[in-house]
Amino acid sequence: MNNTLIVFYSLFRNTENLALEIAIQTDGILRELIPDKNYSFDYNTATKEIRNQICRGFCPKLISGNESIEDYQTIFIGSPNWLKTLAPPVLSFLRSHDFTGKTVIPFCTHGGGGFGQIENDIARECSKSTILPGIAINGTAGPNQVTNWLKAIGYK
Prior knowledge:
The protein has 156 residues and is of the alpha/beta class.
């Protein structure tokens, strides 16, 4: 069994596309986080829903993707940058598991805000793991960007 897991949440598919490229290049297992309630596909409505959840520290129930991580040593964790932080479904995942002794590698997609606080938020939630430098992609990533990043962090 491959001991690399790629976990992600993606509303508008940019983060999913990045997760797919990481999975292709690492031969890792993909796992999409699906909350029990979907966000609106209308950008303005979704933004209001998201802002409300983040301000409250809300962690939605996950109906898929929250299975055990026990068999994985390396876990890539992907989220869109929402208000400079993680999407609430990713926070739910992080708070549901013990990452002690695991290697955690963040990745995100954004519209110009880079990682914001995402790397710090993941490091706080996974304080007993090794955190490697992540990748933040504005829009969509090309295969070469992912290849170069994986080499830079010593994954390849």
